[in-house]
Amino acid sequence: MRWRRLLTPVTYSCKLLGIHALAAFLPLELFRVYVVKICLIDETGAGDGALSVLASRWGLEHDENNLMALVLTPSHLELRKRDEPKLGGIFVDFVGGAMAHRRKFGGGRGEAVAKAVGIKGDYLPDVVDATAGLGRDAFVLASVGCRVRMLERNPVVAALLDDGLARGYADPEIGAWLQERLQLIHASSLTGLADITPRPQVVYLDPMFPHKQKSALVKKEMRVFQSLVGPDLDADGLLEPARLLATKRVVVKRPDYAPPLADVATTNAVVTKGHRFDIYSGTPE
Q1: Among the three residues 71, 90, 109, which one is the final residue of a domain in this structure?
Q2: 153 shares its domain with 86
Q3: Which protein family is named in the record (predicted)?
C-alpha cells in the first residue's frame, strides 16, 4: 500500500486501531492509523493526563526532538512548528474566527465549492470529502445544508479536526446542525473510498500540491501544515476510486498552474482566481 503523504518529518508505521465513534457504520478494516512520533506539549496545567489519553487514542508517540509539536492549550489543540515559533499554531475552529465570518458573510451557495458540487434549488448533495485537511471546504458545504463525511488519514490532522468538531458540536448556535451534517472518518482515502456506504452523490478531492517556488513563503498556516503532511505523492490514485464511489460527480480542487489530477482532462470546471474546481462524472447506481 502507498500512503498519500510521504514527505514528512514524522515517522509512520501502520497499526490497526478502533473505529471513530462517528464512523461506526464503516468496516473496521478501513481504519488503518499511523503511529506518529511528534513532540507532545501540555499547556493546560491541569495535570489530568488528558494529553496522554489523546496520544493513546490517535496513536501518537512523544518525541522531544521533533520539530513539529502538538500542543494542548487551555482552549484547544494546536499544531506548531518549533523551529519557526513566529508562525504560531494552527487549529480547527468552526465556531469563531475566519470560519464564523465566512459562514455569516461569505457567499454561501454562491461560493465556488458549492457551485462545483452542484448545489441548486432544493438539491443538496451528500458529499464525501476524501482529503479533509483542516475541514474548511467541508464546513462550507455543511453550512449550506449538505451532509459531509470527512476522510483524514493523518492522525495529527484527524486529532485537530476531532477537537474542532467537539467544540463545534457544543456550540449553542451551530452545534445541532453541525453534528447532523459534518462527521469525521479517520481512514485512508485510497482504501476507504472502495467501501463507503451509503454511496455519496459527490466525492470532493483537494490533494496537497507543491506551491510555486516564488510563493514558497506562503501564509504561515500552510507552511506549518505542509511541514507536517508534505505533498500528496499518490494523489493521482484517488481519482478512479472516487469516480467509482460518487453517484453524480467528483470535484477536484487544483491550483490554476497545476495539471489535472492523474492527467485526466475535463472541460467542466468552476474557475476562480488562483484555483479551479475540475468536475468529473461519477458512476450512477
Answers
A1: 90
A2: no
A3: Belongs to the methyltransferase superfamily. RsmJ family.
Q: Which residue type, as a one-letter code, is found at position 254? A: R
Between CA 124 and CA 126 the distance in angstroms is: 7
The answer to whether residues 81 and 203 belong to one domain is no
Do the strands 68-72 and 36-42 form a parallel or antiparallel pair, or are they unpaired?
Answer: parallel
Q: Is the residue at 154 inside a domain?
A: yes
pLDDT in tens, 46-97: 999 999 999 999 999 999 999 999 999 999 999 999 999 988 999 999 999 8
Give 282's strand partners: none
Cell of 25: 457504520
Q: For residue 270, list its beta bridge partners.
A: 277
- Residues tagged in the binding site annotation: 136-137, 152-153, 188-189, 206
Q: How far apart are CA 285 and CA 282, in angstroms?
A: 10
Q: What is the mean pLDDT of the chain?
A: 85
- List the domain range (segments joined by +) for residue 107: 97-281
Asked, for residue 150, whether it belongs to a domain, the answer is yes
Instruction: Record the cell numbers describing residue 225, joined without a space.
Output: 501544515
Residue 16 lies in a domain: no
Q: What confidence tens digit (pLDDT) does each residue in 226-254 have?
A: 888 877 778 999 999 999 999 999 999 99
Residue type, 272: T
Residue recorded with cell 458540536: 169
* Residue 84 and residue 108 in one domain: no
From first CA to last CA, the distance across the chain in angstroms is 28
Q: Which residues of the chain have pLDDT under 70?
A: 1-34, 211-218
